[in-house]
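Below is how a single chain appears once it has passed through the pipeline. First comes the sequence as given, then the structure the pipeline wrote out for it. We keep one example in the README because the format questions we get most often are answered faster by looking than by reading.
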Amino acid sequence: MFDYRNIQLQNITPTWLPGTIQAAMLRLDLLHSEVSGNKWFKLQCNIAAAKADGKDHIVTFGGAYSNHLAATAAACRLLGMRCTAVVRGEAAPMLSHTLALAKQQGMQLHFVTREVYKQKDSIDWKEVFQDAYFVPEGGHNAAGAEGCEEILSMHDVSGFTHIICAVGTGTTLAGLINSAEPPQQLKGYVVLKGAHYLSEEVKALLKYRSAPHWELVHEHHGGGYAKVTPALIECMNHFYNETKIPLDVVYTGKLVQGFKKEIESGIYPPGSRVLLIHSGGLQGNLSLKPGVLHY
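Resulting structure:
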């Protein structure tokens, strides 16, 4: 459905990167204007499973600013499938830009209270949405991880010593681990505060005992999920000025900010070749005031 040739492997040389270390960014954000980044890779096997099961209705879950909901709505519209979002929180007088866009794409919005949403895994949604295929929040399941195994095949990445990405559910990282080749090391920069449970979430999606070395880094969440600080905005603007690569405030901005801090602290040894995964999600920047970002 998409032209994978749009995905670029772009070398980056920001001023804070020493000459002893090389870095590049895999631009998954260029895949599609609406179904961008890792979102499509997490959806593709789920959608294939739905079709194989004879179902044309996707039901999924998320909050009012979910990149996953936006991407699911767009993908289903392009594929001619119906879709419904179970949205965390009661309907606001004015929809968020994300939900408004999803609704325009044809997604039905089913709002539930935060209390109900916390219990969503114990609710029999098949009784509510009969004959639907269910995709967990963020595409976090084995099919989502399987789809993400394709990411590293977009370009020859065999020469990289480290592969790093932002982590929300751990699905993308699991897919990368499953498809990487030792001795490559993988690192996930967690964007949620105190989410130490993610280690077990990732392990549950791994296929091989002899997986490459991987780790989660919890020090660069910037105050918690979707928390935006002046330092983050400054980092994103500076990175764009030097590379012309736009980042998002929830995931890739914190990935680059965390990577920069670790470069400055000497965590990456000389000779490292680091691949950063751009996971898209740029629509999330629409929640910011105009002019905050310089792109």
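The chain has ten helices and ten strands.

See the next section for the split statistics.
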